[in-house]
C-alpha cells in the first residue's frame, strides 16, 4: 500500500510503498477514507536528531477516518463496514485518567511505550491503518469523513480547552482567540455554539482574519502592536476572560498576559516555543495560565453529535497521498486556509 512517511531527520516526508498491515489480537484494520495534516507534524519533522523520539520511518497522520475492514481476534464493539474516526491520544485504558475517558492525560503511556498514531505508532497517511483498540474509534455514520476527520484534533483540542473555562464564558464575557488557522477557526465556532461570550480573533494574516469573521468572530484584528489597545476597547478596559493561544510564540503569550481580566484564564494550545512569564504582581488577581493536550474520548463523541447539528463548518483543502509532501510545504508556509485533508 502507499503511505506517507518521515524517513530521514531534516528531510521532507516521502510517499512510499509498504506492506498492508494485518490486525493483531484486539486490533482493528481501517481502510483510510481521510487523514488530516497538522502543525504538530511540522513541529515533529523540524526537531533536531537529539530531540527526536518518534522512531523512523514514521507513517504520519494523527487525524484519521476510515471504514472498518477487519477485526483482530477478540476485537469487539465495532462492525466491518462501519465508518469511524480515530481518537488519537491512546493511553493504557486502566489508570485514573483513562478510566475517566481522558487518555490524553494517561499517566502510564510513556512508561508502557504507548504512542498516538502518526506520533510514534503508524498513522493515517496511508491506504490502511491499524487502530490498537475499538475503544479508540467513534462512529460517524453518514457524516462526510473529509469534514469529520478534523474533529479528531482540530476540533477536539479547542473543544477540550474551551470546556475547561466554560463557567467563565457568560453573557458579557470576552474571549480572545490568537491564531485563526486550522484549530483557531474551529475554536471560534465552538465558542459561538457553546457560550454567549464575545469572540475576538487575532492573526497576522488578513485572509485568516476574513475566515475568522466568516465563522463567527465578533471582532477580528491584526496581531500587531495595536492589538492590545483594540482588545481593551472591546472589553471596556476590563480585559479578556479567556485567551486561547493557538500559536504560543513569545509575542503572543506576552500579549495574552497583557490583555486578561481579573480571574481570567490563559490557555496555551499551540506548540510554539514561547514561555508564559508571570508572577503574583505581574498579572491581574486570579489569573490562571495552563497548557492543554488534545481531549477526552467522550468529548470526541460529543463533538460528532455537535457536528450533526450543522453548526460546525471546518474549512478544508483536499489532497491526494501523492500531493501530501507539497501540502506539508504549504502548511509550513502558513498558506493553507483552514485544514488540509488527504484522501487516499
Please specify the SSE layout and strand pairing.
Elements: E1 2-6, E2 14-17, E3 28-36, H1 39-45, E4 58-59, E5 63-71, E6 83-86, H2 96-99, H3 109-112, E7 128-131, E8 137-139, H4 145-148, H5 156-163, E9 174-178, H6 184-194, E10 198-203, H7 206-214, E11 219-222, H8 227-234, E12 240-245, H9 250-258, E13 260-268, E14 288-291, H10 297-308, E15 316-319, H11 324-333, E16 339-342
Parallel strand pairs: 9-10, 9-12, 10-11, 12-13, 13-14, 15-16
Antiparallel strand pairs: 1-2, 1-4, 3-5, 3-7, 3-16, 5-6, 6-8
CATH class of the largest domain: Alpha Beta
Q: What proportion of the residues form beta strands (DSSP E)?
A: 15-25%
In the predicted model, the low-confidence regions spanning at least 5 consecutive residues are: none
Number of domains: 2
Fourth-level CATH superfamily of the largest domain: Medium-chain alcohol dehydrogenases, catalytic domain
Helix and strand pattern: EEEHEEEHHEEHHEHEHEHEHEEHEHE
User: How far is it from the N-terminal to the C-terminal residue, by CA?
Assistant: 10 Å
Radius of gyration: 20 Å
User: Average pLDDT, to the nearest integer?
Assistant: 96
Largest sheet: 7 strands, mixed
What CATH calls the topology of the largest domain is Quinone Oxidoreductase, Chain A, domain 1
Helix content: 25-40%
- Second CATH tier, the architecture of the largest domain: Alpha-Beta Complex
Structural class: alpha/beta
How many helices?
11
Number of strands: 16
Shape: globular
Amino acid at each position: 500500500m502507499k503511505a506517507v512517511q518521515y524517513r530521514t531527520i531534516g528531510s521532507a516526508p516521502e510517499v512510499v510503498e509498504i506492506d498492508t498491515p494485518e490486525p493483531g489480537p484486539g486490533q482493528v484494520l481501517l481502510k483510510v477514507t481521510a487523514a488530516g495534516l497538522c502543525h504538530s507534524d511540522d513541529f515533529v519533522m523540524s526537531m533536531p536528531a537529539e530531540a527526536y523520539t518518534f522512531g523512523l520511518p514514521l507513517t504520519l497522520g494523527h487525524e484519521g477516518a476510515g471504514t472498518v475492514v477487519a477485526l483482530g481476534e477478540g476485537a469487539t464493539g465495532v462492525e466491518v463496514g462501519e465508518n469511524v474516526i480515530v481518537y488519537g491520544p491512546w493511553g493504557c485504558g486502566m489508570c485514573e485518567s483513562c478510566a475517566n475517558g481522558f487518555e490524553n492525560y494517561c499517566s502510564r503511556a510513556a512508561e508502557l511505550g504507548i504512542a498516538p498514531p502518526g506520533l510514534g505508532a503508524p498513522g493515517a497517511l496511508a491506504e490502511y491503518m491499524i487502530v490498537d483498540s475499538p475503544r479508540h474509534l467513534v462512529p460517524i455514520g453518514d457524516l462526510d469523513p473529509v469534514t469529520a476527520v478534523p474533529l479528531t484534533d482540530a476540533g477536539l483540542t479547542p473543544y477540550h480547552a474551551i470546556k475547561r473555562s466554560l463557567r467563565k464564558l457568560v453573557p458579557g464575557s470576552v474571549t480572545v482567540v490568537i491564531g485563526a488557522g486550522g484549530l483557531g477557526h474551529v475554536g471560534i465556532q465552538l465558542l459561538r455554539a457553546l457560550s454567549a461570550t464575545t469572540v475576538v480573533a487575532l492573526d497576522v494574516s488578513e485572509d485568516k482574519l476574513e475566515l475568522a469573521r466568516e465563522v463567527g468572530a465578533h471582532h477580528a484584528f491584526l496581531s500587531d502592536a495595536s492589538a492590545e489597545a483594540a482588545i481593551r476597547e472591546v472589553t471596556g478596559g476590563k480585559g479578556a476572560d479567556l485567551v486561547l493561544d493557538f500559536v504560543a510564540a513569545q509575542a503572543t503569550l506576552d500579549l495574552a498576559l497583557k490583555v486578561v481580566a481579573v480571574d481570567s484564564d490563559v490557555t496555551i494550545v499551540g506548540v510554539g516555543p514561547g514561555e508564559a512569564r508571570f508572577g503574583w504582581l505581574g498579572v491581574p488577581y486570579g489569573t490562571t495560565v495552563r497548557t492543554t493536550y488534545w481531549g477526552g474520548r467522550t468529548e470526541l463523541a460529543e463533538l460528532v453529535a455537535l457536528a450533526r447539528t450543522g453548526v460546525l463548518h471546518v474549512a478544508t483543502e483536499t489532497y491526494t497521498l501523492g500531493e501530501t509532501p507539497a501540502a506539508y510545504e504549504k502548511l509550513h508556509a502558513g498558506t493553507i486556509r483552514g485544514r488540509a485533508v488527504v484522501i487516499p
